[in-house]
Specification:
alpha/beta, Arginase, Chain A, eight-stranded parallel sheet, two-stranded antiparallel ribbon, 8 helices, binds manganese (II) ion
Length: 281
């Protein structure tokens, strides 16, 4: 007998044997519109029993891999700086033990903690960012640590030309003007994924998926829905294009399960996570 602990399907490997470690970062304190992303990781774990471990897209099964589900981090709500430190320290320990961190957000700010840990160990790091929103504000209402500034903070670490953005369809004039000379930003679609994957293939890569990149008709369970998004299938195809990259960590963020009483948004997130775990583990 083991303890009665709910994990994501197919993620039952012991820590010592695991090459990949899944964990939740249930934090949404800087959310400006509709909070609730802190409930994503528990919803994803409990709903994951509704999908198969086998992927017909990739002809592989989650159980072919050694993945440990570490549960959720204990995070000090209301103190974004300490939350970043906690996530960075946890991911850093995983990197140092030779394991790939996989994070379920949370609001999108949590990505900054994980990227800080990766950038400290992989100085050539590139970031592949899927989102409806540019997230490139210098500050948001005077705050530097915010879901709306997360990719700008990543730029502070990595500098020009290292951030590849896809599906972006919302931001301020200043963000888009700034992006033109500092990031590589594809508006509305994911069509440049092949050429970007080729440009990044010699470098370690971190993949961050803000799930609101998907159209709200398919994915309504999110804090800041933005019409005109890509389909699940478009996103999955793009993420599978990155399969050959040296992915050193990834996350999915911004599922806010309570805004979708049908549950299809959580089910979509479960399926996407399965595919990413299989593709990058
Ligand atoms: Mn975002
Ligand atoms: Mn977003």
């Amino acid at each position: 007998m083991g303890p009665n602990v709910q994990t994501f399907i197919g993620c039952g490997a012991p820590y010592n044997e695991a090459t990949t470690v899944l964990f939740g970062a249930p934090f949404d304190s800087t959310t400006s519109y509709r909070p609730g992303a802190r409930f994503a990781s528990s919803a994803i774990r409990s709903e994951s029993i509704g999908i198969e471990t086998y992927s017909p897209y990739q002809g592989a099964d989650l159980e072919d891999f050694k993945i440990f589900d570490a549960g959720d981090l204990d995070l000090p709500f209301g103190n974004a700086a300490r939350v970043m430190d906690t996530i960075e320290a946890f991911c850093g320990k995983l990197h140092d033990n030779g394991k790939m961190p996989v994070m379920i957000g949370g609001e999108h700010l949590v990505t900054f903690g994980a990227v800080r840990a990766a950038a400290a160990r992989f100085p050539d790091l590139r970031v592949m960012h899927f989102d409806a929103h540019a997230d490139l504000r210098r500050d948001y209402m005077g705050e530097f640590l915010s879901h709306a500034t997360v990719m700008r903070r990543v730029w502070d670490l990595l500098g020009d030309g290292r951030i590849y953005q896809f599906g972006i369809r919302s931001g301020t004039r200043e963000e888009f003007e700034w992006a033109a000379s500092h990031a590589r930003t594809e508006l509305f679609t994911l069509n440049s994924i092949d050429s970007c994957a080729e440009a990044v293939c010699r470098y370690p890569a971190y993949v961050s998926v803000d799930l609101d990149v998907i159209d709200p008709s398919e994915f309504p369970g999110t804090g800041t829905p933005e019409a005109g998004g890509v389909s699940f299938r478009d996103l999955l195809d793009a993420l599978l294009c990155l399969k050959g990259l040296d992915v050193v960590g990834f996350d999915i963020c911004e599922l806010s399960p309570h805004y979708d009483s049908s549950g299809v948004s959580t089910a979509l997130a479960c399926k996407l996570l399965r595919e990413m775990l299989i593709a990058y583990s």
